[in-house]
Each structure stands twice: as structure tokens, then as C-alpha cells.
Amino acid sequence: MTAHVNMDFGSRLRQLRQDRLMTAVDLAKRVNVTPPAVSHWEHQTKVPKTRRLQAVADALGVSLDTLKGSATSRQPECSWQPAMELDLEQLIRAIEAKGFSVQVRSREKPA
């Protein structure tokens, strides 16, 4: 897992999201915003409203201090649990994002 303290907010948000194999669309759905809003946050063209920050932290399974990059947050983040089940398409995207090639073969179901 990456050390997130010395990153800017947008980079930290993107890394935390990617560490959890979430797409920007996944995060947007979980915090009830549009995918472009997440993109704006990650590219630092806009910042999330204060009331939205806790929802983002909750969706990512981190403390608000970790999300904001506070050096005072020393809680280990190693007890991460997936916030949702991945469907096959999300799993394939996550594997490919790590540089692996995925081939899916269709199998006929037994009658």
C-alpha cells in the first residue's frame, strides 16, 4: 500500500480509490455524485464540499484524516475489506490496470 501522507489531495484520492480497485464511477455512485465530480477532485480543478468529504472517506474505508493527508493519522489501514463485490467486468479492469492481460472464454453451461 502506498504512503498517502505526502501526496496532494487529488493524487491521494486517486491512489486510495485505485488501492481498493474502485473506478471513478464506482466511487461516484457510492457518494452520490457524478463521475465528472470525482475526476475534478482527482485533477484538483474542484474540491469536494466539506459535508461530502466524510462520505468519500467512508466509501474508501479510511479516516477523514487519512483522506485529507493529515500527518497525525497513524492508524494502520491494513484491515481493509472490499466495500462491495466486484462484478466480472470490474475485476477484469482491475487486473488489466495492474498490467496483466485477461482473456475470457465463453463456456457453455451443461444442460
Taking pLDDT < 50 over at least 5 consecutive residues as the criterion, the unreliable ranges are 72-76
Reported by name, the CATH topology is 434 Repressor (Amino-terminal Domain)
Characterize the largest beta sheet: strand count, sense, and whether it forms a barrel: none
Proportion of strand residues: under 5%
Please identify the structural class as seen in this structure: mainly alpha
Whole-number mean pLDDT: 80
Please report the first level of CATH classification, the CATH class.
Answer: Mainly Alpha
Query: What pattern of helices and strands is seen along the backbone?
Result: HHHHHH
End-to-end span in angstroms?
A: 45 Å
Count of distinct strands = 0
Radius of gyration: 16 Å
CATH superfamily (homologous) name: lambda repressor-like DNA-binding domains
Compute the number of helices: 6
Total discrete domains: 1
Q: Helix fraction?
A: 40-55%
Question: Based on the structure given, which CATH architecture is correct?
Answer: Orthogonal Bundle
Overall form:
elongated
Secondary structure layout plus pairing:
Blueprint: H1 9-19, H2 24-31, H3 35-42, H4 50-60, H5 64-68, H6 88-97
Structural notes for this entry:
The protein is an all-alpha fold and 111 residues long. It has a single domain (9-70, 80-97), classed as 434 Repressor (Amino-terminal Domain) (Orthogonal Bundle), CATH 1.10.260.40. The chain is 48% helix and 0% strand. The protein is built from six helices and no strands. Helix 2 packs across helix 3 (35-42).
